[in-house]
Amino acid sequence: MDRDDRAGRPGGDHPPERPDHPEPLVSAQDVEDADDILFAHPPRVITRWLCGCGEDYPCPDVRFARLVRAVHATDNGVDDSR
Ligand SMILES: [Zn+2]
């Protein structure tokens, strides 16, 4: 029961120790890195736009409409002369 708990890992509770990681606890370098990481990864508030239809804006309909308008605006000057 004790062995089968972790599938595929007979006889080892912890991974083998690596020579390049002699300290099991956080080192001073880790703390320094953590400061840098926290400084470089500040939380950001993302403002989500909601469409009137309840979906994220632009919803597929709006995207389609925009595309149509864009295309229409492009040929407007040419096609309007007819
Ligand atoms: Zn919509």
Please specify the SSE layout and strand pairing.
Blueprint: H1 28-40, H2 60-79
The structure holds zinc ion.
How would you sum up this structure in a few lines?
The chain has 82 residues and is an all-alpha fold. The chain has helices at residues 28-40, 60-79. The radius of gyration is 29 Å and the shape is elongated.
Structural description of this entry:
This protein has 82 residues and is an all-alpha fold. It has a domain at 49-76. It has helices at 28-40, 60-79. The radius of gyration is 29 Å and the shape is elongated. The N and C termini lie far apart (84 Å). The model has no long low-confidence stretch (mean pLDDT 80). The structure holds zinc ion (ZN). Zinc ion binds at residues 51-53, 55, 59, 61-62.
Tell me the Rg in angstroms: 29 Å
What's the end-to-end separation, in Å? Answer: 84 Å
* Small molecules bound in the structure, each named once: zinc ion
- What fraction of the residues are assigned to beta strands by DSSP? under 5%
Percentage of helical residues?
40-55%
Shape: elongated
Structural class: mainly alpha
- SSE pattern: HH
Q: List unreliable stretches of 5+ residues.
A: none
Number of helices: 2
User: How many extended strands?
Assistant: 0
Give the averaged pLDDT, no decimals. 80
Largest sheet: none
